Fold each of these.
Amino acid sequence: MSHAADRDPEFTFELRVCRWAEQAWHPDGPRPAFVARQLGTRKRRWDTVVVEVDPQAFATRRDLSTRGLDSDLLRVVRHAPEDWQWYRDAIPHPGFPWRHVIAAVHRAAGRGLVETRRGKRNRVEYRRKAPYSDWVRRIVAIENKPNLDASAARALGEQLTHDVSRSLADEVWVATETTGRRVEPALLEDIPVEVGILSVDADDSAEVLWHPSTLSPSPDDARRRLVLAERAYDKGWRNYVETMRPDCRHFELSRRGRALIPYCAAKACHQSQRECAGSCSQFEPEPPQWRTKGWPIEGGPGKGIQRLLDQRTERMRERVTEP
């Protein structure tokens, strides 16, 4: 299986880079961090996002919730007062109607993030259960191009220039497949000098071909960066299974380097997310007996795969907080 064809080489390479980053970040020495994929803003989406954290503060953040906070919940939780207070006095004016904020306050209470009560004049008051810690140290963006030839470099050039000038991330990298040539082609391509270059080999070991410059994110982007970090925390990088069909009898996980990569036994390939769907001509639902005999009653092999990937994500998050 390790030699199976890739229907989408960039997708499988991306998963391998995520696994490498999860195991070995940072190239200059170990740093506590977790990894997500396919995240960004309305104007820009990154292949891989590495969020470097303060381990102690991250442990406090995990105690608050093991799920990520969207922008509305984040506003409520960050400004939650220590003692009871009317929510409009505690939260800065959001720039849109307060009715959306009060809905978020109730949603936060429903998730156990804050406590609410009715105060004077029947006003909704709330208070925090625990302070929201300053847990994010740095955000790093990685673009993945296994075959970084001249045309791929040209296509990336404008995006990378935008990343450097925008400085939403603290570092920007390009990861490419090792070719074994005396001079790796990536070094010869037109990539902004501020962008680092990683060469990843078949065993998912990485070599730094070019070190990136440290960028200077604007303080005005602090909240936007925190929203991005929260999305990364919630999403992780193994969530690809949510857009595929692990309930197909042909769906498997195959080891590729250090990563577990989706594998289609019917097509004998590492399939793409695009084709692994109910519309696939080879799609066959798991037989009902797979879910009731010789397998946990919580579901069949597909559910088992989802649990396995979720458990690995949680295990890596817990490792970040270990001394």
Note: The CA atoms of residues 35 and 113 lie 24 Å apart.
Amino acid sequence: MSILDGVSRVLFVHAHPDDETLATGALISEMVDRGIRVHLVTATRGERGEIVAGALAVEPDPETLSQIRESELSAASAILGISDRYWLGSTPARARGLAERRYRDSGMAWITPELAGPSPDVTADALVSAQLDEVANDLTALIEEIRPTLVVGYDDAGGYGHPDHVRMHDATEAACRMTNTPWAEIVAEQGDEVEWFDLEHRLPVVASALSAHATQVRVDGDHIVHSGGQRQAIPTSIGLRAR
């Protein structure tokens, strides 16, 4: 029996533009080909993310970078086949009765080469500065609007520890509990109670979607090069663990 049995609408919950493709692009493409309608909510515009050297002629201010990354996300989503996209804090992903708001990228600092932690200069309008209840209620409003049959989000470590990822894990858990919606966490390695999807045949579409995120990664064959120079094989396998 598969987590995807009987699933018709899925909501993917992500923190920044490019997370949807890096973490779940192959699975999104697979679901779309299976006839599942895929929705995506993104919490921030990735304003504090690093920029690939040479991707832009001049270094933009945060607002301009936000606009660029909105456009990149739109292009990548179209390539993956995502049907509907939302920004957390904007209708319908905003709790009823509250004025719309923009959650800002909280930034991060590397604790080890593979583990991120909080940034020392988090701003008052950052995602992690908002009360968890507010973030969870915004996500709840979206879930009640679109009624997904499955939500997919981060594990409790946020994949690699980014504070925004961890916050969205906590919000996803709370929102799915409040709405009694099944959800599954993204798992990077095979293990107990993990349904593993080997999706190497999705490599071309994932590579194409990653190319749309030109300010964040550079595609080099079946690998990507991150803004810091780290080289990584394009991920095509993913695990889900039902929660």
Note: The first strand starts at residue 9 and ends at 14.
Amino acid sequence: MSDSSVSSDTDSESVLECAECLDPADAFALIGNETRLAILEALWAADERPVSFSELRRAVGMRDSAQFNYHLQKLTGHFVTRREDGYAFKHAGQKVVRSVIAGSFNQQPTLEPFPVTGECFDCGGSLRAAYADEHLAIDCRDCGQCHGEYGFPPGGLNDRTPAEIADAFDQRVRHLHCLAADGVCPECSGRMETGIAESGECCLGVGVRVDHECIQCGHTLCSAAGLRLLDHSTVVRFHDERGVSLDDRPYWTLPWCVSAEYTRIVERDPYRLEVRLPVAGDELRVRMAEDLSVLETSR
């Protein structure tokens, strides 16, 4: 998108104005150079920032000062900012390096499926994790029922055991959905809109689901409404009183986080949902508004 302002749902002028917007193709061309990537990586590795011109050139290992300055100036203004005492990152520069570290640009790892904690909410079978196309999915080895599939950058696999990968995935999914439900896109920080869907293809099966979509970059997330309740005080206390710590339980072991079966529509226009949370022979019922805020709880 090369527009100089960000569109909104209203006719009012955007608060964001861009005096020197760079076309996306030109932006990628700027960093499509080995020396410029080396400059960004050297800036990332520096113990302290800003980094002086000479220190940055030594770190990159380029003797020709004029040639180094040429490449540095290409980055300055869009990926790097110049200060009185040296050079520092702009947000875009940090994103480039983080993407390289995460492996999103240059890694295509493979990982054999491995078992994970929990039982299938549908058939009681054992669960496994499988990794493909930068997504990690939890499903049942017996019936194939999906218990969640979300993006997981290749860098998240590095230096981790299968158990550690599963734990990192659990924490990432919780974080993604907290941001999305709060209206912040986990990819671009744009405005995320939340809606209730009653049908359609989704990992949850047939029933009610929650869809999050960023109006800026189009990033989407789909989940059961219960996933939003993992850190709600009443829900946490209800489980604690029955010997269950939600912090220690992967989200996919909690049926109300992965199955539409535990959510029903109470009202429409606007939507009102009720989520059942069974544990230890007891059950908590949580009524939620369309924006996933909790309206009331009952036992």
Note: Residues 1-16 have pLDDT under 50 and may be disordered.
Amino acid sequence: MTLLEHLRELRTRLFRASIAIVIGLIIGYLLHNYILHILQDPYCLLSEKQVRQANHGNLPAGWQCQFVALKVTDPLLLTLKISLYTGLILASPFWMYQLWAFVAPGLHRSERKWAYVFAGLAAPLFAAGAVLAFVVVSKGLEFLINFMPPSTSLLLEAMSYVDFVTGMMLVFGVAFEFPLGIMLANIAGIATGKRLLGWWRIAVFIFFVFAAIATPTADPFGMTFLALCMSVLYFGAVIFALVNDKRRGRNRPSYAGIGDDEVSSLDDYEVEPVEAASPIDGYDPVDAPTPVAAPTSVERPKPLDARFDDIT
């Protein structure tokens, strides 16, 4: 396949993926009010709890959980943002398949089989990370809101709050895809399970640093939950790598199945052909010395008439 044909195929795959995302965006637009209500639930529940505590367990008449829009265009942008995120999530199996279909022809048959499995696991892992992030958001909000003075009322801006929640869900979802890369590296023979197990201290440290940088909240709950989940997934990937190495016999030397009195087989040994040497510059075969012929027979020495011990 030429470079131009590869570019045409890439254009076709991207076009199909874009159509799927647009269809998901339309569905997300029809459901954006319901999705926004779900995203607002953690803050509204905490706000209602604080109001009840301030009013001895009762809610004031006409109380509602409200958000603030600072710009005229914020409601439209918020609707489009929620619709786009929903479309990306709903269409993720299809556009991930299009990406995989473009890469698959360059892989071996065994690598394609494993890649199909990992492509099927990518979407559930991302969803699991997003759900866990939504649970962590409620704990993080409760921690942050507790620092607010009693005489201050909290009223959040809608765009910033949605960015905060979706940012957490995106970070957790992408972080949950990390073990798939480790498993693919083991199957490709880049890293063995024993080596990955020896790197566990460095890996856990990197997970905590990544969680501290990527988590958009200042509370310790989100960072700790993300780092712990990534560590658990890492050890799960290491167990898979150890089992895969044992199944393929990577930890054994190539001569492990050969007995002490057996000769190893040379069936797989390929002899590289040796090319003829190039002539030496300045060498004239006419001036070369005549080689001396080897003797055809060797004369044996005559036996001695007397031995050395007979000499007086």
Note: The chain is about 60% helix and 0% strand.
